[in-house]
Amino acid sequence: MTFRVSLTLVAVMAAAPASAQVPMSGSFVAAKDCPALSSIKRNENPGDISVSAGGSYVLRGKNRDDASHYWIEVPGARPLERWVAIECGSVSSDIAAPPQKPAARKAESGKQPFYVLALSWQPAFCEGKSGARECRSQTQKRADATNLSLHGLWPQPGTNVYCDVAQNLEAADAQGRWRDLPETKLTLATRGALERVMPGTMSLLDRHEWVKHGTCYAADAETYYKDAVRLVDEVNGSAVRDFLAARIGKTVKTSDIRATFDEAFGAGAGQRVRVACDRDGGRQLIVELTIGLRGDISAGTPVADLMAASTATEPGCPGGVIDPVGLQ
């Protein structure tokens, strides 16, 4: 089964290290379908991931000054960072950016921090990852069959990763060696809540997300995941979840999903939502929603207010099937 990612969950196999590329900023827009490799030298492509014609992806860099490949983020891929041949598309900026290592977790004084909340539709994800533990054990009665699941809460910009993380741990994470990462230290209550909204904990996704993104959000994993669970529960407690659950097995338009966010969280909220789709044979599946948020999440700021303070984003794919549990 070919599983294509058309727009904007995380790494299982080796990704090329950041040191092996020239950092860049901007976007990569695919002109045609092309394979997205985790390793150029070994020609590896775990998950058989491809960029899709017309898709826009975050640009991270290129492999050298006289580049043969661009380094981009492909949402839904494991690992997230992939190499794609330069002839496969164009970039919005071809200017090398100096490498930067995040030094602080908090926004500058007087500025509101910006985040992306990534929520997966787990049955669609499992179409391409049926061997994952969380996919093998998924049932129609489990919460992720009818609710959105937590992929991650990502401080922005996208380069704001691995804050104060030891080099050996960063390398282990980038290479998909999640078992070598420390266990996330959570209270029993938060651990239970996290396992409910993030089935990927069965594959140690929580370790990866904390090391890469959570360390740039809070001083401890307890705060990071307690806040993330609260956001997920608020979205799943809204008309958005009801809209999706009522249409399992049917095709929905991205415009209708965005309109439902307006209904649930206020006028304009839908413009903060981007829908990502994956190709599964002859079907296009809605696999993930990414939501722009701005403000103090830890203060308990409602999702509606966090979305209202954020900026608009492109809608993503035009729509797709709300996948039911099980291989279709």
Would you write up a description of this structure?
This protein is an alpha+beta fold and 328 residues long. It folds into two domains: 89 residues, SH3 type barrels (Roll), CATH 2.30.30; 208 residues, Ribonuclease Rh, Chain A. 24% of the residues lie in helices and 22% in strands. It has nine helices and 15 strands. The strands form four sheets. Strands 2, 3, 6, 7, 8 and 9 form a six-stranded antiparallel β-sheet that branches. Strands 1-13-14-10-11 form a five-stranded antiparallel β-sheet. Helix 7 packs antiparallel against helix 8. The radius of gyration is 18 Å and the shape is globular. The N terminus is likely disordered.
Keywords:
single chain; 328 residues; alpha+beta; SH3 type barrels; Ribonuclease Rh, Chain A; 2 domains; six-stranded antiparallel beta sheet; five-stranded antiparallel beta sheet; 15 strands; disordered N terminus
What name does CATH use for the topology of the largest domain? Ribonuclease Rh, Chain A
- Average per-residue pLDDT, rounded, comes to 85
Unreliable stretches covering 5 or more consecutive residues: 1-20, 93-109
Major sheet: 6 strands, antiparallel
Gap between N and C termini? 11 Å
Which CATH top level class of the largest domain fits? Alpha Beta
Given the C-alpha coordinates, what overall shape results?
globular
Q: Using DSSP, what is the number of strands?
A: 15
Number of domains: 2
Radius of gyration: 18 Å
The proportion of residues in beta strands is: 15-25%
Helix fraction by DSSP (H/I, runs of at least 4)? 10-25%
